[in-house]
Design brief:
33% helix, 20 strands, alpha+beta, 2 domains, Thermophilic metalloprotease-like, four-stranded parallel β-sheet
Length: 409
């Protein structure tokens, strides 16, 4: 297996198909320092396509943990440089494309960190990024979240680092559709299937989505102006792009006041940088009123108290067991992959592009449509081969959408 050639093909898919970078556009790549080499491969692909500038923005997770552990006064954890908000505004206003490249050097770097301190840093960073992420949510620019494997992350997924590079790429290649002679064409075919499912959901106009399975009986209320989306989006320039590689979901923004019932997660989830397993939630009138977890309950509690919107839903997403990520049999300990292996819900901010005319609404208008508003958004996987999903109509009748983990629409 020629790993360098594989990376070049992957970078071409990200830049040409996912971001669909247009000639003359600048590109921002945000990633960890360990991803420097693959970021360079992405930059080469971008310049070959006509990028005017590729800017790399690196973070160091060890420094992030050091700040949380060693800062003398908790008050200092709220500090953010004043120029950052303006910098992110300029990325949006100047029409940059954005790649968020995942793949951690230290997957468990925040394990054992003080939840309250992590919460203070996360809250401060979220406020700085709020306008930028709101623009991302409204698809003002082309954006993409993708992943490039590291040895430590691969070892966590595979169980060991023995021959890790070959083994992890054997898992990733079919998921990323790089085993196809024409990966871009394969993504276009897949995109069309996601759009077909969205069309069915949008024409059905279900009043509620009902999840049933072991330890799960959950009703999620929708609103008449909701839209199911999935696959490619269109930015404000009219350019198609894929926000996620890989992507297997169709999703919408629920009415945040109408979630009722009980649900237990089926996969680990990263909450404020820490893996939480066995999380469960009880909802009443839209809000989480009881919760628990097998591990890191304290970090989950910190998340739920982040702001008023952290206890209500901003997303419901449907994924079935035919997903190549699910079929791999792996848990990836990464939300990009694990959310595309399973149906999921998100506690936190809603997607304005899943509301008719939502991207043109003011914050007050969005609240009137019962679109959740929060500084956070975290997906919790709730699907499996034992979970079924139905759509509930206004008259109370139900239609099957997923039966025992498989789409029937």
């Amino acid at each position: 297996m020629d790993f360098d050639e594989l990376r070049r093909r992957y970078a071409e898919v990200i830049v040409s198909t996912a971001i669909n970078l247009q000639e003359g556009e600048p590109l921002l790549i945000r990633t960890e320092v360990i991803q420097r080499k693959f970021a360079k491969v992405l930059a080469e692909a971008a310049y070959a396509r006509g990028a005017s500038l590729v800017s790399l923005q690196f973070s160091d997770p060890q420094l992030s943990r050091l700040r949380i552990d060693r800062t003398l006064d908790d008050h200092y954890l709220k500090f953010t440089p004043s120029h950052l908000e303006n910098m992110y505004d300029s990325y949006m206003n100047d029409g940059w494309s954005s790649i968020s490249l995942r793949g951690p050097e230290f997957p468990d770097i925040m394990e054992g960190a003080d939840p309250a301190r992590v919460g203070k840093v996360s809250r401060a960073n979220s406020k700085v990024m709020r306008r930028f992420l709101k623009g991302i949510s409204a698809n003002r620019i082309a954006w993409n979240v993708c992943l490039h494997p590291t040895e430590t992350w691969a070892a966590k997924v595979l169980g060991s680092n023995e021959d890790w590079e070959r083994r992890i790429w054997e898992v990733l290649v079919p998921i990323l559709r790089l085993d196809n002679d024409d990966p871009a064409g394969a993504w276009q075919v897949h995109d069309a299937e996601l759009k077909r499912r969205c069309k069915h959901m949008n024409s059905s106009r279900y009043d509620k989505i009902h999840f049933t399975g072991p330890d799960t009986d959950l009703y999620i209320g929708m609103a008449p102006n909701r839209i199911f989306a999935g696959g490619s989006c269109v930015n404000q320039k009219g350019v198609d792009f894929l926000p996620n590689i890989p992507t297997e979901e169709i999703f919408s923004t629920p009415d945040f006041t109408r979630t009722e019932g009980f649900v237990k997660t089926t996969r680990p989830v990263e909450v404020l940088g820490t893996q939480v397993t066995g999380a469960w939630f009880r909802f009443r009138a839209g809000r989480v009123v009881e919760f628990g977890a097998d591990t890191n309950r304290g970090m989950l509690e910190q998340y739920l108290n982040f702001d008023d919107g952290a206890r209500t839903l901003g997303e419901v997403a449907l994924v079935d067991s035919s997903s190549p990520i699910f079929r791999s049999g792996k848990v990836f300990y990464n939300i990009l992959f694990d959310e595309n292996a399973s149906c999921h819900i998100a506690l936190g901010n809603g997607y304005t592009d899943c509301i008719e005319n939502g991207i043109r609404m003011s914050d007050d208008e969005l609240e009137e449509t019962r679109c959740n508003s929060s500084l956070v958004h975290t997906d919790f996987m709730i699907g499996s081969e034992e979970v079924s999903v139905s759509g509930v109509k206004q008259d109370g009748s139900e239609e099957n959408i997923i039966e025992n983990g498989i789409f029937v629409i």
